[in-house]
Write a structure and sequence with these properties.
Elements: E1 13-23, E2 28-34, E3 50-57, E4 60-67, E5 77-82, H1 89-96, E6 102-106, E7 123-129, H2 133-146, E8 151-158, H3 167-176, E9 181-187, H4 203-212, E10 231-236, H5 238-250, E11 258-262, E12 281-289, E13 292-300, H6 305-311, E14 329-334, E15 337-339, H7 347-351, E16 354-356, E17 360-362, E18 366-370
Parallel strand pairs: 7-8, 7-10, 8-9, 10-11, 12-18
Antiparallel strand pairs: 1-2, 1-6, 2-5, 3-4, 3-6, 12-13, 14-16, 14-18, 15-17
Helix pairs in contact: 4-5
The protein binds FE2/S2 (inorganic) cluster (FES).
Domain FAD-binding FR-type: 11-115
Domain 2Fe-2S ferredoxin-type: 283-374
Cofactor: FAD
Amino acid sequence: MENLSSKGRQIEFHRLKLTKKQQLTKSVFSVEFEVPPSLKDKYKFEAGQYVTLKFLWREDFVQKDFSMTSAPFEGKISLGIKINSAESPANSLIEHIEVGSEVEVSVPRGRFTLVSKPHEFRTIVGFAGGIGITPILSHFKNILFNEPRTRLFLFYGNKSAEDVAFRSELNELKIKYPERFEVYHFYSREKVGNGIYEGRLDEKKVALIINQFLLLDDTDEESTIWDAVDEVLICGKGEMIKALANACYKHGIPKKNIHFELFQEFNEDIFPVEKEFPLLENIEVDFKLLGNQHHTTLANNKIRLLQQLLIQGFPVPYSCKSGICGSCECILEEGEVELLENEYLTKKEEAAGKILACMSVVLSKKIKVNFDLV
Ligand code: FES
């Protein structure tokens, strides 16, 4: 799958050898890279992370992010690559690489990660849309392997059965962990004779899933499986994530336990914030990003800081846009902002001036921030 384009920080690349290339569906390929012993430490990763591939496309180098489908214990870098059109960079990449080719692969990055809890009995639910299965697959393999008591439920939406990527890997997991892993497929453009499995994964479907699949809990007759859910993982397109994240929140899952990864530019807030602020216009912003000092003017403070800078074309790093992942953290060196929500910074970090640009509403006519924290 293809993530958002590179998120701003300086990236370290190495040439890795392709050891496998396999077509899974008409538009999805799986590729695998070998990591030589000398680079093992640099390519250590956590489930849910991604790498960036740098390759030539129409005489220019482009960089595209792809989530890993492998789990850390497997010791390899496997990716899922979706071809959206014959004209896309990803299509050109797939056409030009073969087993034995060397490709520039970045060291792993990303914050769509979970803390491992091998001694706990957890219930984790995943929602994947299309190629959004890739980081979820990495997570699920990792959790099933490392957490012997944790149970997992996957709800996987595709247009039709023939679009389901990684079906055989999912089936293998089902056979290996029949007591702890369940997967349900949903098709938006195929009739399967049972309305529950037809249509998109959306808010209504979440209610249905809670009532039909996550109802009875064998381990605790007094509650439902949904009541026991500890973490929710969602990956796919922005509208799907927004609908599902808000539905899960409405049905009682705290925001800090709803983790998601956007695979596309998405200019809306995942969790809308309703709060009024005094209007300020023509706000001067000085900021440091990737070693460069910038100056710009924001028309007003109706939109949060990160979004305004992105609209102006600055490559500010971000991932969740919801105050959860910390990708957009920076230091407020001058001026005032209100941090609407924060699930990432500690009190100490906040006291030291750190803010999350995605959740910051500017409250002074001039601010100065620094995104170069390291
Ligand atoms: S983008 Fe995730 S905290 Fe701001």
